[in-house]
Amino acid sequence: MKERSILLSEIAEHFGVPMINGDIEINGLGLCNRTSVYPSILSYVTSTEYIAAAKNNPSIKALFISKNHYESISGYKDRFSFCISDSPEEDFYKAHAWLYDVTDFYEKPDAPPVIGRDCRIHKSAIIENGTVIGDHVTIGANSIIHSNSRIGNNTYIGCNSIIGSVGFQIIYTAQGTPFNTRHVGGTIIGNHVWIGDLVTVGNALFEGAVQIGDHTQINNHCHIGHNCIIGESNVLTAHVSLLGSANVKNNCWLSPGAIVMNRVTVENNAMIGVNSAANKNVPQGNTIIGTPALPIKEDESYTEKDDKITNDKPF
Questions:
Q1: 119 vs 63: CA distance, rounded Å
Q2: Which helix (H) or strand (E) holds 223?
Q3: How far is CA 164 from CA 29, 64, 82, 108, 172, in A?
Q4: Percent of the chain surpassing pLDDT 70
Q5: How many whole angstroms separate alpha carbon 224 and alpha carbon 206?
Q6: DSSP 181
Q7: Are 147 and 185 in contact (CB under 8 A)?
Q8: What gap in Å lies between CA 255 and CA 264, rounded to an integer?
Q9: Which of 41, 176, 307, 308 lies at a 20 to 30 A Cα distance from 20?
Q10: Phi, psi of 289, deg, nearest 5
């Protein structure tokens, strides 16, 4: 098998499920509502909502689907090839793990690390194969740079931090037992980025990379989940958490303990207050506080922005 190429019939045979509408080549797995750089994606559906999303996603060519949901489709059964499964979600993620663990479908970079000029890497740090590190990079004691990570020039990473950590995507079996699925993407960190101690930066689930833009500053004890995108010149203070697929644009300030929920976008120049949870998109330039976070009224006499411009920050 070559990378990113397998016949749907091989997957169906391995999992012992019937296939409908003929055999096709599969070159990626993904979710129905996500875009892909690959033209023939295998996904799964567990509701009519996701069937509609798959229909409108040109990359989705095949689906794991239950017999009941298959029979409920009208008008576009010829749009996909199907694997009929009693547990579509479980079988889909098990297929994903099987393709990584047993086959050559997913790339597994094994070239020695590429490390640029004038780097200061502590002797206890672990730099895995398949990594690329730019010039003038500092990596502190006991930090780990996992395979398929890219780090730009003049970037600082403190002690006990992990770049390219395995993400946390919990799936339940038909018996109700949770399991975490394999993450196979990468991590890209830009230039002049500062990352403190005890920071975890995840990798991507199926393809692409978690991204941290130039000049972004990330304080100690922060967590960046899988598939997150962080733009340029952002400040994430201590204990900030970004859940899966969160998107922080440019020049944002996230105060200590702030949480950005999964798939929430924080637009340019926005601010999130201390211990606040953003569960909806944050408009450009807004300051939000609370749980769930709400915009500060214009007549408030004090906002988190007052802390941002002082010289004596409490963190």
A1: 47
A2: strand 223-224
A3: 20, 29, 33, 14, 24
A4: 93
A5: 17
A6: P
A7: no
A8: 17
A9: 176
A10: -140, 160
Closest CA to 251 of 277, 281, 224, 271: 271
φ, ψ for residue 43, nearest 5 deg: -135, -165
Which tokens belong to 122? 């502590």
Under a CB-based contact definition with an 8 Å cutoff, are residues 171 and 190 in contact? no
Residue type for position 49:
E
d(CA 151, CA 145): 9
CA–CA separation, 117 and 94 (whole Å): 42
- What is the distance between the alpha carbons of residues 64 and 72, in angstroms, rounded to a whole number? 14
List, in order, residues 6 or more apart from 201 with CB less than 8 Å away: 161, 162, 163, 164, 165, 187, 189, 195, 210, 212, 224
With contact defined as beta carbons under 8 Å apart, do 252 and 269 qualify?
yes
Positive/negative CA dihedral, 78, 83, 87, 92? negative
Q: Which token pair is 22?
A: 């003929």
CA triplet 309, 312, 315: central angle to 5 degrees? 100
- Assessment of whether the complete model's pTM goes beyond 0.70: yes
User: From CA 40, how far away is CA 150, in angstroms rounded?
Assistant: 27
Tokens, residue 102 = 């047993």
Calculate the dihedral angle through the C-alpha atoms of 295, 300, 301, 304, rounding to the nearest 10 degrees.
-10
Q: Give the pairing of strands 25-26 and 6-7.
A: antiparallel
Contact 227, 211 (CB under 8 A): no
- Contact between 255 and 304 (Cβ < 8 Å): yes
Q: Does residue 264 have a pLDDT over 70? A: yes
- Separation between Cα atoms, residue 292 and residue 284, nearest integer Å: 18
